[in-house]
Amino acid sequence: MSKLLVKDKDIIVPGQVVAEGMDYLPSHGTYRKDDRIIADRLALVMIDGKVIKSLPLTGAYVPKRNDVVIGRVMDILMSGWRIDINSAYSAVLPLQDASFDYIKKGDNLTRYFDLDDYVVTKITNVTSQKLVDVSMKAPGLKKLQGGRIIKVNTHKVPRIIGKQGTMVSMIKDATGCRITVGQNGLIWLNGEPEQEILAVKAIRKVEDEAHIQGLTDRIKDFLDKNKISMKEEKVEEKQDKDEQLKEENVEQKQDKGEQNEL
Amino acid sequence: MSYKKRLDGRGFDETRPIEAKAGVIHKANGSGYFKIGNTVAYAAVYGPREMFPRSQQNPKKGVLRCNYNMMPFSGAGDRVRPGPSRRSKEISYVTEKALLPVVDLSDYPNAVVDVFIELPQTDAGSRCAGICAASIALADAGIRMRDMIAAVSVGKVDDKLVVDLDYAEEAYEGGDVADIPVAMVPSTGEITLLQGDGLIKKEDLKNALELVKKPLQKIAEIQRKALIESYNLELKGDKK
User: Fold this and answer.
1) Residues A71-118 pLDDT 10s
2) Least CB-CB distance to A88: which of B108, B147, B187?
3) ipTM (interface predicted TM)
4) Most buried pick, A100, A182, A204, B22, via CB within 10 A?
5) Closest-CA residue to B230 (of B146, B149, B136, B132)
């Protein structure tokens, strides 16, 4: 006698009756009222046997332990940094978790992270009152230099990354950009300006169409159609890098020279 | 003398034509648009975000903060003076109290959810339109709500009970007029807003609250449809 009133992957809205009867069980995004199961947020419904789950479609980022997020240094504290992680709650990066180097008390902390620097960090702890601690001590965590930051819907991040990172690697390969995706909906890109724009367009397309089937193929088509050849640019990049290296070498030599003089 | 036919010709239990949309303000976390007759309301939700001033933080759950504003050119000719007034403060307050019973902010201690309601055009029933728009916007922002909130006014013009009075009816001079804005949780029938202007008998008030149930259900359906449709639009690529 239990009746399901929606199809799998339908959009459900607050107050909508999802199922009638006691045979189904409410889970995330739904609740039971008498013998009915009712939605309590805007979401995509997922029917898993007798359990009715849902995937939220919108909403601000809620910090979760072990998430890798991109944050902005908003303040420098007595013994650490306050980081804006695009959420209702800011995170604290304590001194001992900031660097593998030993940082002396009273050191100038801006030498490590200055105001408005962007960092890739990992959330180590979230308390019940949503006090968030982050750390820089794990592989891949770093300060971001150059590039640009874009904001996307947090709930679309898993689709942007794709299964085992397939989606983001596809965009990376097609555009030659370096891309870092934070769980909090901030994405950092660095590459040639035209390629960056293409990568942003592709990411926006994923974001808009995340809830429609056949996403990977559509993004692939989109990237193939709009591809900008990278050959010449790669050569230029190499030249740039060579020049940079030369300059650095020169600088180092100059430094040494000065030291010798001293 | 009695009120035989409504001034704009609709039935006594009929609302003005309604139009609703979700996701109309892209920079906001959620937004809603609600038009009923000539009354137009936009609502934008920002948050949950950090609560300032700190003294207003609540460590137990998030705070809902509503702001109702009529635009200077929105009235019937006279300029509405911009800025907070006694009236707009009161409406902001009752809007907040009307929405709070369905909104669950226990996941956001010390944070605030801001709701900004703007009315570019008004023709009576503006607080109800504002509440309807805000309800859409909150759902669009992904806030947990056990139901939508639907609101509309009901009342008595001369000797007839009517739903959704417009300004011409509020200003009817052939007899007594009562104007009662009502907000309701549609699934349970709980009333979250009930104000009143004018004279009405106890029996009539009871009947009026019965009369308004059906139109409120209809409004809730329109709100839900607006939310679902905002995603269909995204599918077609019409958004952005």
Assistant:
1) 999 999 998 999 999 999 999 999 999 998 888 877 899 999 999 999
2) B108
3) 0.88
4) B22
5) B136
